[in-house]
Amino acid sequence: MRILSGIKPSGTLHIGNYLGMIRPMVQSQARGELFCFIANLHSLTTLFDGPKMAAYSREALIDMMALGIDPEKSVFWLQSDVPEVIELTWYLSNVTPMGLLERCHAYKDAEAKGIPANHGLFSYPVLMAADILLFQSNIVPVGQDQKQHVEVTRDIAGKFNNTYGEAFTLPEPEISEAIATILGIDGQKMSKSYNNTVEIFGDEKAVRKKIMSIVTDAAPVDAPKNPDKSIICSIYKLFASNEQTDEMASRFRAGGYGYGDAKKELFEVLWNYFLPFRQKRGELAANLDYVEEIRKKGAMKAREAAAVTMKRVRELVGVV
Ligand code: ADP
Ligand code: TRP
User: Fold this and answer.
1) What is the DSSP letter of 201?
2) d(CA 164, CA 159)
3) Which of 39, 220, 242, 312 counts the most CB atoms within 10 A of its CB?
4) CA-CA distances (angstroms) from residue 301 to 297, 307, 314?
């Protein structure tokens, strides 16, 4: 079983990204053959700053390795290191109906907001289909927001197979129901667009400040509080043990426990949770030659797998 997932390098990773996408991806290394890549070509639809783009891509490679992607177990690469994906995008484009792309939400949202959409944003689901189909992926774990793109991928694969003959495995999206939307420090969905994130690799002072600024009501220290309505508890329980979670909940209910104290505990738990990852990240950042070597090896392995699909596809479309 081949599991494939991509992460778009578009800024600093936050704990919502970690719980919603990165941790499930890392865990899937235990149950199948993981193909995992940094989708830098996807970032180009909205990021028009070369130096930033290059920096985000490099950071993303290091972050993912630090967070548990194991290049010995998985195929891990930078999307642009496998140029076959662009060639496949073109073949797929020509069997993709316009209507299919017009219904896709990235483009529709841009239109609705009056943001002028470029062709890249419009056709981005075809690039995503190529990412998935090039490697004959069976399962694609994604957030709810990406489910539509995997369905489009199935449609495009079906169209191609019907037009030319069997070339592609139809992938299944896998949405983890367990991980609901992680709340940000203001109580909305945590998202870098809302400026309410807690960074995975932020520095200690900055992370502490973010945690201390989590929105609460004005209940005084003495008052009993409802843990189920607290943003602090909602984040705490994702990183603390069950006992710690129960303990905090009963302190909330009992009263005499202030939000400030709860925030300090949350900070401690979070900071300790990511401690081994920070150490690993530090080691990798000090050894960029090693990161570069992993990147090259990953691209080689990915291109080997891609070559098998491309041989068949080129034959079918008549590019010989
Ligand atoms: P952002 O909203 O910060 O721009 P992205 O859209 O780049 O984040 O997120 C990439 C992936 O990370 C999403 O597809 C989703 O799986 C996961 N993710 C992001 N924010 C959250 C969240 N608040 N809760 C759960 N998962 C999230
Ligand atoms: N579009 C995805 C996102 O914005 C990233 C992505 C690109 C991806 N190609 C993919 C995810 C292929 C899964 C499979 O988050």
Assistant:
1) S
2) 9
3) 39
4) 6, 10, 20
Is 173 near ligand 1, meaning CB less than 6 Å away?
no
Query: Helices in the chain by DSSP H: which ranges?
Result: 15-17, 23-27, 40-43, 50-66, 84-93, 98-102, 105-112, 119-134, 147-164, 204-212, 231-239, 242-254, 259-273, 275-285, 288-317
Q: Ligand 1 test: best mutation among 13, 14, 17, 185, most atoms within 8 Å of CB?
A: 17
Please give the backbone phi and psi of residue 220, each rounded to the nearest 5 degrees, phi first: -70, 165
Q: How far is the CA of 191 from the centre of ligand 1 (A)?
A: 6
Residue type, 129: A
Tokens of 293: 């070597």
What are the strands of the beta sheet with 2-7, ordered from one edge?
75-78, 33-38, 2-7, 139-141, 172-174
Q: Is 96 helix (H, G, I), strand (E, B) or coil?
A: coil
Global pTM?
0.93
Cβ neighbour number for residue 87 with a 10 Å cutoff? 16
pLDDT tens-digit series, residues 245-281 = 999 999 999 999 999 999 999 999 999 999 999 999 9
Choose among 113, 111, 131: nearest CA to 121: 111
Q: Give yes or no for residue 17 CB within 6 A of ligand 1.
A: yes
What is the number of helices (H) and of strands (E) in the chain? 15, 5
Mean pLDDT of 172-194: 86
